[in-house]
Specification:
The chain has 147 residues and is mainly alpha-helical. The chain has a domain of 92 residues: Arc Repressor Mutant, subunit A, CATH 1.10.10. The chain has seven helices and three strands. It has a three-stranded antiparallel beta sheet. The relative contact order is 0.10. Pfam families: HxlR. Keywords: DNA-binding, Transcription, Transcription regulation. This is Helix-turn-helix transcriptional regulator. It comes from Streptomyces cinnabarinus.
């Protein structure tokens, strides 16, 4: 039984006769398990985390201050927003500029890498809509009586 597993060790980029060249255009995607260097995994990691896609969406409109982001995303707590912004900064997707004065003003801007996520976010939205139509899984209706 041990010999069954030895063939997979160290051979994460084995050739596969049926690789779809659109889905797997290069050797980095020809893996048998999720690998950190796989472009798909890199893209998914960039937008992972609760609220990350919404923070990125708001920053696509240009530089924003912390208070402005809180106003655009009123349901996210200040703590969670700070955590998301810090994580996006660590991923190299957001640049932070702290301006002198009282109070200190902080401005968040997407980097080139952050801006490169725009097509992914657009496609994720379109794909989500298509899945909702195809599966009949419509988004939960908000309480209309509050409006």
């Amino acid at each position: 039984m041990a010999s069954e597993h030895t063939g997979d060790v160290g051979h994460q980029t084995e050739s596969h006769a049926s690789w779809d060249p659109e889905l797997v255009p290069g050797p980095c995607g020809r893996t048998r398990r999720p690998e950190p260097g796989c472009p798909v995994e890199v893209a998914l990691a960039a937008v992972s985390g609760r609220w990350a896609t919404l923070v990125l969406r708001e920053l696509m409109g240009g530089p924003r201050g912390f208070t402005e982001l809180r106003g655009l995303l009123p349901e996210v707590s200040a703590k969670v927003l700070s955590e998301r912004l810090r994580a996006l900064e660590e991923r190299g997707l957001v640049a932070v500029e702290r301006r002198r004065g009282f109070p200190v003003r902080t401005e968040y801007t997407l980097t080139g890498a952050g801006l490169a996520l725009r097509p992914l976010l657009v496609q994720l939205y379109a794909t989500g809509e298509a899945l909702q139509r195809l599966t009949g899984a419509l988004p939960a209706e908000r309480d209309q009586s509050a409006h």
